[in-house]
Amino acid sequence: MLLSQIAEIPASRELCGWLKLRRTAGQGHLAQELLLWVISGNFCQGESAFDIYKPRDHVVMEFTGGDVYQKQFDPKVYLEYFHFGKGSVEDEFLEFILKCFCKIFTSGVLKGGTLIDIGSGPTIYQLLPACGSFENIIATDYLDQNCQEITKWVKKEPGAFDWSSVVQYVCQLEGNRETCAEKEAKLRRSIKQVLRCDVHQSNPLAPISLAQADCLLSTECLESACKDQASFQVALKNLSSLLKLGGHLVLGGVLGCTFYRLGPQKFSSMVFTEEILKNGLSTAGFAIVEFNAEPRVFKTNMEDCDFSGKYVILARKDKEGDTLIDIGSGPSIYHFLFACESFREIIATDYTDQNREEMQRWLRKEPGAFDWTPIMKYVCELEGDREKWPEKEEKVRRAIKQVLKCDVTKPKPLAPVVLPPADCLMSSLCLETACKDLPTYQSALKHISSLVKPGGHFILSTVLEENFYIVGRHTFSNLYLERQVVEEAVKEAGFVINWVEEIRFKLHSSITDSKGACILLARKSSGIKGDTLIDLGSGPAIHRFLSACESFREIIASDYTDQNWEEVQRWLRKEPGAFDWTPIMKYICELEGDSLCFDVACKDIPTYQSAFRNISSLLKPGGYLLFHSTLEEHYYAVGQSKFSTLYLEREMIEEAVREAGFVIKWIEETRNTLPPSLTDGKGRCILLAQKWAHRAFTVDCLLSSLCFNGACKDIPTYQSAFRNISSLLKPGGHLLFFSTLEGYYYRIGQRKFSALCLEKEMVEEAVRQAGFVIKSLSEETRFNIPPSLANGKKLCILAQKYGIKGDTLIDIGTGPTIHQFLSACESFREIIASDYTDQNREEVQRWLRKEPRAFDWTPIVKYVCELEGDREKWPEKEEKVRRAVKRYLKCDVTQPNPLAPLVLPPADCLLSTLCFDGACKDIPTYRSAFRNISSLLKPGGHLLFHSTIEEHYYMVGQHKFSTLYLEKEVIEEAVRQAGFVIKWIEETRVNIPPSLADGKKLCIFLAQKCTPRKSGSCQFRATHPSFSASPMSSKDEPVQSRGRITQGATPGGWEFREQLSSAFLILSLSYLFSVPPLNVLPPTSGS
């Protein structure tokens, strides 16, 4: 038994997880202990004892979610573990953590302006060693009750936890340089803010956006917040965005822990090992400076927490992210010599072909490429090892993944290529040359801003006060810029400048009249931004505008009372007697909310709910509402006057906001500390909500049961209802629909309700007209209920929404065929065919004009109609194709505009069948062809592409034609590089006689062109249904010859290769465009 278990063991690095799985599955204790002994002796030599997961008398519990923490975590019970000096396991942990922290923070390595503590909990012990090294400390936690507990200690409120014993111990560790009272006072002064934090958000402190900190600290947080290694990795990456490059991360916690207990409540913990921590930090771009770990000494109280060891890690952020885009690289690579150490992928760009070719020459190590060796050696010398320049050279070559054309004066500088937003942008001596005037310069900065993620960095290097520069014998003009102009333009583009360095040129130069240069580091704002903000119920105050003015060009204040409006006007005009807001401005480092308006303006709950619906009309779909309100308040006092307010609870506010069409993104609640003479409110809440943008709410499935025949008064309304609900469903999604037939009434109690009398054909027609394909239909002759309650029969329909639809489809490389249009004509109003050769275009035109000698497509048309459910409708299908094909154009995919000289509006869909492998001579041309055709497609549009794999040639009659040898991976890479996301791909093997072709496989895939969003993401929710129903879905069964589909070998005739590929294509196209059930094999020679 034991040997059979050992034989199942996977790779040795996964042994800990395997052991845990075996324990959970209930394997024998003896086998476990013996196996653990074998493993620890043979596989894990040199690793810490507590790095192996030891079998215990419990199983791994389910992950404890945030909602459970909010309800069940009691900070008072948790703090009972921190009564220091009891000689317990808690003291063991505290002594280890505090000794390590004191050593780290007193070493002089960690100093700076700001430290952010992630997941502070209700504790401050971890901040005691740090308060002497950082001026500003920001405490954060996910739980409101923990934040309140820290605030209570900072403000010395009654009931705050007594940390004096821990403070005394820290002072002893530091050599009693200050008294306990001085240490506590210093920490209280250092804690500037206590914020909410969620490590699973890309900005963990959202909606607040802070400048990057010098240091991050986190103790016993991530093991509770993360349920597995994937979420741990994401959390580290999110935290990294809060830290400066070169800044430090200090982590402390427990190893080998699966749970801890607070009173009767049990909370899960992710099992951390040294390996998980080291790998996670390395992947997130951190270099470990120091790793301290010790096994658990006290074996008591294992029922309260089962950790096996403790750890403290000091790490440095060495990498900023995955991708850097360099705008205007020119022919040089020197600026990548440092960047290659921090980014896995570098994308170089330039406007001129010769600059891009020069860089490609160096990357390919071609003769005549510029020699960058002296610069390499100098950079390596700066980094401490001059002799490592060959490694540096190769690292740069590996990092530069693409060299693209770029035009910063265009809204999409890299068009037609669309890339996911990068982590960092860099531009050196480019924008001042590319822009003719200041408005163009400002616009260019906004354009390139779209290429970087919110929170990402921008490094800009520019010359100052320059009118010209000379290269060889040519003089080039330059946009005259001053430092202030550059900084203002960068800020207007949505960046926050972190630092600027300027140098002045002392020597006169004959090649430029520049007076100096500057380099700046900026960060793209990740907060709420836009053109216009409307403040509803401003009152006489302006404090909420102090942060908003950084994010909006225009602020519109509004209020019901004239006196409030006049007070604000007085401050705006700087009149004597205007209120002095200076203290508030100095305190603006803390977030201020929106106004207290609705609870005063609304007399009752219906009016309150209506008010939200009213203000919703002022806001764009996708726009934000920032709302601040009192809770459980009946009155407030201003001077001698007392004003009543609408009594509100948090749940009432949330419900009213949601009913008005908003999605609540974040909500924060605090308790009130004002005296009863001013208000009786129990608290306040602030929420951030986003107006529902309907396009975002599409679902995978709709269910409707006995609804429409009661809701619709006539057949037109009934048909319209199906079209309306279709907008809620993703393409390819399903509708499950139950209805009565031939019934005109039903009863509920004593009441009788009329229903729309329907026949089966009416229902089917309405479903199809709304863009659905009926997959199955079940009809029962009668209800199993008495006629006194209802009459009629039952009907059940399962339908699927058409896959791809739109106005225009462009077919790239149509050839002499039309079979690819037989399904597409059902989904597109206009089809534009295109091909490179005149004879192919003439052959299709002959069929469209119904000329004699045109190829007979009838068998194929009948087959497609059979797939769609009615073989006899083939004459209608032929006419529909003829009406849909509006034009047949010349096309050359190797040109930037394949349809030149024509320029067409972007299409909804591109289709290409067996074209590119014949049109492209090599892989670079092949990749370029995808980028070229991408310009013909709308963002979000689809590309349906059909190709051979591993083919060198094919025969047509006596003529042999060469093709580009392609593998599946090469095709996928080319498609992704052109800015597409592959949604589905299908591959099948083929057996073609060598006398006709040597292709081994056929593949077809569906891809979607990336749509850049304001938030920076490039993602698609909708995925197309799988092709599991296709008879060709098996990759192991080769497709056998099915004979000739048509007679004769006319110029438009099909050879054997085309028969196979077209059969495969027809099945796929029918499924994609019409989504019918695929239950028919391709036609045989007898068809």
CATH homology superfamily of the largest domain:
Vaccinia Virus protein VP39
Give me the CATH fold name of the largest domain: Rossmann fold
Number of helices: 36
Label the structural class: alpha/beta
Main sheet specs: 7 strands, mixed
Question: What is the overall pLDDT average?
Answer: 78
The CATH level-2 architecture of the largest domain is identified as 3-Layer(aba) Sandwich
How much strand content do the residues show?
A: 25-35%
Question: Uncertain regions: pLDDT < 50 for 5+ in a row?
Answer: 1-59, 589-600, 1013-1058, 1074-1087
Count of distinct strands: 40
Give the overall silhouette: globular
Portion in helices: 25-40%
Distance between the termini: 60 Å
Tally of domains: 5
Strand numbers in spatial order across the main sheet? 3-2-1-4-5-9-8
CATH class of the largest domain: Alpha Beta
Question: What are the main properties of this structure?
Answer:
single chain; alpha/beta; Rossmann fold; 40 strands; 31% helix; globular; N-methyltransferase activity; SAM-dependent_MTases_sf; Nicotinamide N-methyltransferase
Give an account of the 3D structure.
This protein starts with a helix and ends in a 13-residue tail after the last helix. It is globular and about 105 Å long. The protein has 5 domains: 66-317, 3-Layer(aba) Sandwich (Rossmann fold), CATH 3.40.50.150; 323-524, Vaccinia Virus protein VP39 (Rossmann fold), CATH 3.40.50; 530-691, Rossmann fold (3-Layer(aba) Sandwich); 699-770, no CATH class; 787-1009, Vaccinia Virus protein VP39 (Rossmann fold, 3-Layer(aba) Sandwich), CATH 3.40.50.150. Residues 1-59, 589-600, 1013-1058 and 1074-1087 have low confidence and may be disordered. By secondary structure, the protein is of the alpha/beta class. The longest helix is centred in the C-terminal third of the chain and has 19 residues, at 1056-1074. It has 36 helices and 40 strands. Helix 27 (715-726) packs across helix 28 (760-769). It has a 7-stranded mixed sheet with strand order 3-2-1-4-5-9-8. A 7-stranded mixed sheet has the order 12-11-10-13-14-18-17. Strands 34-33-32-35-36-40-39 form a 7-stranded mixed sheet, sandwiched between helices.
